[in-house]
Specification:
heterodimer; A: two-stranded antiparallel ribbon; 76% helix; B: MetI-like fold
């Protein structure tokens, strides 16, 4: 009772402190994240004139134009295919590699570091190196030649997207591997010992002990891998420029199409419309991931 | 007896197979990096030769001299440093201050605001790049380094990661400082920040490498060579040195060397930081 006034004062002081730290951050956050996201949605319903900076509301017309566009359909197909292949492959390899490492009795820090190394290589230089390796007279084809196989046109037609998938898994795998490794290490060994005493084999232990415990990490990994796959840009951009490039629309993906609509065709509104679709796809797959993981954890 | 020997044999072969597998994978992981580094020291004749050697027979710095003398590659690297370091510093400040507030204070709308931060973690820049570009254009920051910095000055994962780590700082420590008469600002600067060394280092590295890695946004903002980032420089080399793979490799090696060196020196923080951010995601 006695210090009611001082409590009120210190409480006010504390709110002032909270506001002084949080308000500037949220002001920036709104300006560079929240507002642009809502603007993307808003612009997708407008016709935007780049020169005069004027907008006219046109309802869903951008969307109907987008879905009638061959470039968009092709990009959508390629991106979905890219995700459909790289997400499971990435997770399978990363988890497999983590389990192989975990099966050794001692930690092998040097191998862990080596597996992680490609993730530290930025995508642009990585893509430039791989592009040379893939080129018609490049290292990979010379290698095929020496072992008596014929050349493969790694960057032509539908092969190009597949080649980018290899580079992508090479670069991203180490990150997921480290996450799985930490997860595996956090499992107390009594679980496996108990399962072994019960006479379960390696597969049963993996299926009924390891994977259920790893579920939250698997969820995180598959969401990450999905988002990465849907936002793929740099390798595709590198591979479609300069010499020996991947031709035509063979590697066109959503983010490349967004970029080109905005800066080659100067259609900011159409680019926003496509960005909304990209957002919806990512939201959809994140929701599926969450759903699947929640359903399973009920059991 | 026979059975036991058979078991042992089988165990040993599986040991050998696993080790072989681990080593082969390690070699495949490193090979492209090795190949780029080796090729960057080769003279043109060895790059164009009909058969490749696994290392340069007559090692030369020619390719590096070429990209730094014929092109303003030093400038590109410097720009990337400025952009990455600047954005990282701001991202650190915004993450640490808001992370601390979310971790240790209660106030109206706290959970709602934090949920908004969490919700944006999964949204890639492609989704909001166009309106942000138009905004940067309005500010007159097109083709400037601050313009390239802008999307990186805030980091949802950084805020999240800071909050998670600062929650583990015992409340008693903060209360003790309050009783000693420390102001809230001094508590933050002299108690909280020093105790958050590990997440600060981890977030710095993540932010720096993310900025260093980016192509999509700089491609939109930088228009003339004096504002190019290193990645844009590499794109330029693809056109200028169209079939000169030696020069392209030298450029690639310089750009990939920086995060690789970071990794070599700060491996512990990086692996722990990435792993932790993963576990709590």
């Amino acid at each position: 009772m006695l210090n009611r006034f001082s409590v009120g004062k210190s409480q006010r002081k504390r709110y002032l402190f909270i506001a002084s730290l949080l308000l500037p951050v949220f002001a920036i956050f709104i300006v560079v994240r929240i507002w642009p996201i809502t603007e993307t949605f808003r612009l997708s319903f407008h016709h935007y004139d780049m020169l005069r900076h004027t907008e006219t509301y046109i309802g869903l017309r951008n969307y109907s134009r987008l879905f009638a566009s061959n470039d968009f359909i092709l990009s959508l197909k390629n991106t979905v295919l890219f995700a459909a292949v790289t997400v499971p492959v990435n997770i399978f390899f990363a988890l497999g590699l983590a389990m192989l490492l975990q099966s050794r009795k001692r930690k092998i820090p040097i191998l862990e570091a080596i597996y992680f190394l490609p993730y530290m290589v930025p995508l642009v230089p990585a893509s430039i190196v791989w592009k040379w390796i893939y080129s018609p007279n490049g290292l990979l084809n010379r290698f095929l030649e020496t072992i008596g196989l014929s050349h493969v046109a790694w960057l032509t037609g539908s092969m190009a997207l597949f080649s980018i998938m290899i580079l992508f898994v090479w670069r991203m795998n180490g990150y997921l591997m480290i996450i799985f490794l930490v997860g595996l290490r956090s499992i107390p060994s009594i679980y496996h010992d108990a399962a072994a005493v019960d006479g379960s084999n390696w597969w049963q232990q993996t299926r009924f002990v390891t994977l259920p415990i790893l579920r939250p990490i698997l969820l995180y990994a598959s969401i990450m891998a999905t988002v990465w796959a849907f936002m793929i840009f740099s390798p595709v951009y590198v591979m479609s420029q300069g010499s020996d490039f991947a031709t035509g629309g063979s590697v066109k993906v959503l983010s490349l199409d967004i970029y080109m609509r905005a800066f080659s065709y100067m259609r900011m509104d159409m680019a926003c419309t496509e960005a909304v679709i990209l957002f919806m796809i990512i939201l959809f797959f994140t929701a599926i991931n969450l759903r699947v993981s929640r359903q399973k954890s009920v059991h | 007896m026979l059975h036991e020997r058979q078991m042992k044999f089988r165990q040993r072969t599986s040991e050998i197979v696993i080790w072989a597998l681990l080593i082969v994978i390690a070699l495949l992981e490193v090979f492209p990096i090795y190949w780029a580094v080796m090729s960057s020291f080769k003279p043109e004749s060895e790059i164009l030769a009909q058969s490749y050697t696994p290392y340069p027979v007559h090692p030369t710095l020619m390719q590096y001299v070429k990209i730094f003398q014929q092109q303003p590659f030093g400038r590109f690297i410097f720009n990337t440093f400025v952009v990455s370091a600047g954005a990282t510093l701001l991202a650190l400040i915004t993450s640490a201050t808001s992370g601390y507030i979310f971790a240790k204070f209660h106030f109206p709308l706290r959970n709602f605001l934090f949920l908004i931060v969490l919700g944006t973690i999964m949204i890639p820049i492609q989704v909001y790049a166009i309106p942000l570009f138009l905004f940067v254009q309005k500010l007159g920051l097109i083709n400037t380094l601050p313009g390239i910095m802008i999307p990186g000055i805030i980091m949802s994962t950084g805020i999240f990661f800071m909050k998670q780590n600062m929650e583990m700082i015992p409340n008693e420590l903060i209360d003790a400082a309050r009783i000693d008469g420390c102001s809230e600002y001094r508590i933050f600067l002299t108690v909280i920040v020093p105790l958050s060394r590990a997440p600060i280092i981890a977030i710095s590295i993540i932010s720096f490498t993310v900025m260093w890695n980016d192509l999509f946004w700089p491609l939109m903002i930088a228009q003339t060579r004096e504002n190019y980032t290193a990645n844009l420089g590499l794109m330029l080399f693809q056109r200028v040195y169209i079939t000169d793979y030696g020069a392209q490799m030298a450029g690639a090696v310089v750009v990939l060397l920086v995060p690789l060196l970071l990794f070599l020196f700060l491996r512990r923080y990086i692996l722990e930081g990435f792993a932790l951010s993963g576990l709590k995601g």
